[in-house]
Amino acid sequence: MSLAAKTLTAVTSNYIGTLVRVVAQFGAQLVIMRQLGPEPVGMFGYVTLAFGVLALFVDQGFGWSLIQSDWDEEEIKIVLSRLLLGSSLAAVLVYCLSWPAEYYLGGLAGSLFRWAAPSCVLIAVWGIAQARLRKDLQFGKIQIANTGAYIFATPVVGVTLALLGFGVWSLLAAWYVQSILMVAISYYYAPHSLKLGNPFKSTRAGALGRQVAGINIVNWSVDNVSGLTVGALGPSALGTFNAALMLSRTPAVQLAQTLQSVLFSAASALGQDAIRQRRLYLGALSVIALIATPAYGYGMTHSDFIIRMVFGAKWIDASGAFAAMTVGMVAVAMNALSGAMLTANGGQGAVLRSQVLCLVLMTVALLVANHFGLVGVGLAISLAYVIRLVYQMRAMAERIDIHAGAFVEVMRGPLLAACVMAIPLGALAPRSIPEAAAEGLALLGQTGAVLCLVALFPRWFLSDPLRDVMQRFGPGVRLLRLVDR
Question: What's one GO-annotated cellular component (predicted)?
Fold first, then answer.
């Protein structure tokens, strides 16, 4: 099977799994968050913040650097030993964090940290197995592991326990079930030696791993410095902010991360072929832009309706932050692709510089914006993410010779579609019509208007990179024949 065929198969498998996972995640989160409310969700948010940063240090970048490794048995023994050592130290640290958590946040927070600590050890085996599957472009199996684990853990275990009144412990139980299942399924598909070696011995994957780890740590800081800032306001504020962030960020991240993994693997295989690299990058960027930009354009002007429909009226305070972050989340989706392509082409330094710039700008902006509430925090996040995207796109353009006009061609159609989707038509409906029915009819009308514009002006909306992608799929070929008549 050719690299192009493998890449398309991987993308298809990834997005089928992603669609299932996103639907399951939203359904489960809807029930759990409606049941628990902002404060318990915010309490568990402190645990996830701690685990997020520790997981990056434990992984040490091997989750990505092993993709370019030759998988020598001795190297795997050393990597596994390092991961086990790091995860054991992380578990001890999380347990120790239970005491300050109990002092500042109460006994419940301390208990959560103590009971969550052992799950750190699971990172070791999971990281190696998933890296092997990524190397072989076995993204269908990755989706079985990740999506299957999530579907059983959160919608089944988490929702059931929440409905039975177990409160925040339902989130911790789902956390454990998902982690254990992901490790078991990943190892089943990609078994490797469990022999241990000298964790302090050097490895060939270590150099790239350290670079990737540095980027990942900065990435985590960029993604979570806002949570740390809001967390100082208390569990309720953190829970409200996390609801807005989850609802705005999850579609963007899931849309991009699955394609990001495929792009990194495919770009690594292409080597220094700039022409094919350019086609791969612009094609992926055009697909993401066409999906994400109109969707978030709609979300920006319909945030109150979306929050009420998804989480319920008691979460309405999250609507302002959600609307403020929509522009930033389009940038997040597109930025994930640029970062993956730069990393695969030896541009880790550019990625790291862009992330540091984003972190500095976001930190400064958040110190000011925090005085203006959650909306100010959302605007600061969007500003920093857009600047990061521009920096990385410029670096990618210089590396594989892309002119600014190519980016304009990719973005012009999605931006016009976003303007159409952002029109608040539902607000014009008579009050006698239920809000959900009015907004649903308006959404159908706006979607129809966008499709009509595509049919009338196909060259404007369907850029050459997008056409190149569409021509590789049967439905895409038929659609191009239809609009080009």
Answer: plasma membrane
